[in-house]
Amino acid sequence: MCLNCGCDQPNERHGNDANITADDVRRAGEANGQDLATSAANMRSSLGSLAGDGTAGGATARDAATRAPSVPSTTRGPR
Question: How far apart are CA 73 and CA 65, in angstroms?
Fold first, then answer.
């Protein structure tokens, strides 16, 4: 969905190649032998580390998949 803007359109870039789509995450996962769900879980875990929520060091992708991401999200439309 332009996963970073919160528009709920998984593969819409809104004319801006900098926006991240589900297809981007899928391709990145395939490059590492992962499915979309595993790649997304790994990203949630990594983003949680950036946000300082304590998921760094020891949290697995499976653990992260059971938690909602702690990175603040917005429901604003695309810019």
Answer: 17
Contact 48, 56 (CB under 8 A): yes
Contact indicator for 73, 1 with CB cutoff of 8 Å: no
Write the CB contacts of 77 (distance below 8 Å, at least 6 apart in sequence). 5, 7
- Do 42 and 32 touch, CB atoms closer than 8 A? no
Residue with tokens 């996963």: 3
Single pTM value for the model: 0.58
Domain ranges of the chain: 1-33, 35-69
Are 19 and 5 in contact by the 8 Å Cβ rule? The answer is: yes
User: Are residues 1 and 19 in contact, defined by beta-carbon separation less than 8 angstroms?
Assistant: no
pLDDT tens digits along 33-70: 999 999 999 999 998 888 776 554 444 444 544 444 44
